Amino acid sequence: MNPEKKPKDDLSYIFANMKKTINHYNLYGEQIQTLLPDFVHCETIESRSKAYNWEIKPHIHSQLYQIFLMETGEGFVILDKKEVPFKAPCIITMPSNNLHGFRYNMPTDGRVLTLSEVFLEQLFDTSPKVALALNQIRLVPISTDLINFENLIRTVDAIDKELFEDFSEKKIALRAYLSLFFVEVFRLTKQREQGMTSDNRQLQYFRDFQKSIKKSLSAIKTVTEYAQELNITSVHLNRICQNVAQKSASQFAQEYIIAEAQKYLAHTSYTITEISYLLDFNDPAYFSRVFKKETGVSPKIYRQTEVYELRE
Question: In 3-state terms, what secondary structure has residue 76?
Fold first, then answer.
């Protein structure tokens, strides 16, 4: 098919024609502004989606966590290049910095709860198991847990009321409702432990390690430097990573960096040299060698393959 004749709502067309930087939003369609650390927002799916003809184009929220409670209808959630079908009732969790979009079949409705990533981290600062579980994209069909799902809806209603009514001590009430809400989500989405024996302290260290990798995005930062930030030894950090992720600390950090490189290659027009410097590789040739070792192909071939697949 001639690319010029592809419809503008075609998923491949959208990804293949993204600009140098991916669209980042506070809330979809709104320009980025300074975000308060205790930012919370609640709305119906219809209120925003209807204005965009029931299609939310792929985009990123760099500082926001979102959770979608689909009460009626069905559609597709767009994750990276894939369309994943969903059918209500279900829950979709969307941590920050994940490329995503939606195509809703009418009529579809439900609730969207959005809060700052910082606020969510504060809520579960002493509950690393909950924080770690919530920090993953999940699509959870609701079949036998309808009562718990209805309880979640009622809690969101209470959150919405606190946000828009002038009640006294509303911040205290909001924290309480949000904590209850996310604990219930955690219980609904909790997967089998698969033999994982990590205690809460280990999980907290591992989560802090993840945050540090995400913040620095540096290919040259050493395991020793990460460990020093956590006030533990590199041996201890490696042991934690083996227990939680079944990988060494250096392997986990390098895989994260390469995953970020793949996003840049697939979804931006930065040059390979620019990407290598963005990720703190001092030598683009070294970046190419590491990338090929991890993925099996060079950055150039990876980008060509991705663009070809998107345009087919």
Answer: strand
Residue 193's pLDDT band, with cuts at 50, 70 and 90, is: very low
Task: Name residue 187's beta-bridge partners.
Answer: none
Of 93, 69, 77, nearest to 146 by C-alpha is 69
Let me know if residue 289 belongs to a domain.
yes
Q: Distance (Å, rounded) from C-alpha 308 to C-alpha 304?
A: 6
Range of the domain at 221: 200-311
Distant-in-sequence contacts of 226-229, Cβ < 8 A, 24+ apart: 226/253
Find residue 110's DSSP bridge partners: 70
Alpha-carbon distance of 27 to 39, in angstroms, equals 11
Phi, psi torsion values for 114, nearest 5 degrees: -125, 135
Residues 93 and 225 occupy one common structural domain = no
Same domain flag for 87 and 45:
yes
Is residue 177 within 8 A of residue 158, CB to CB? The reply is yes
Amino acid at 169: E
Rounded mean pLDDT, 298-312: 69
The string of pLDDT tens digits covering residues 82-126 is 889 999 999 999 988 788 899 999 888 999 999 988 888 889 888
Reported pTM: 0.63
Cis peptide before 284 (omega within 30 of 0): no
Dig out the tokens for 292 from the structure: 């090929």
- CA distances in angstroms from 118 to 93, 123, 276, 308, listed in the order given: 16, 9, 28, 38
DSSP string, 8-73: TT-HHHHHHT--SS--B-SSTTS---PPPTT-EEEEEHHHHHGGGTTEEEEEB-SSEEEEEEEEEE
28-53: pLDDT as tens digits: 655 545 455 688 999 999 998 988 99
Q: What is the C-alpha radius of gyration for the chain, rounded to an integer number of angstroms?
A: 21
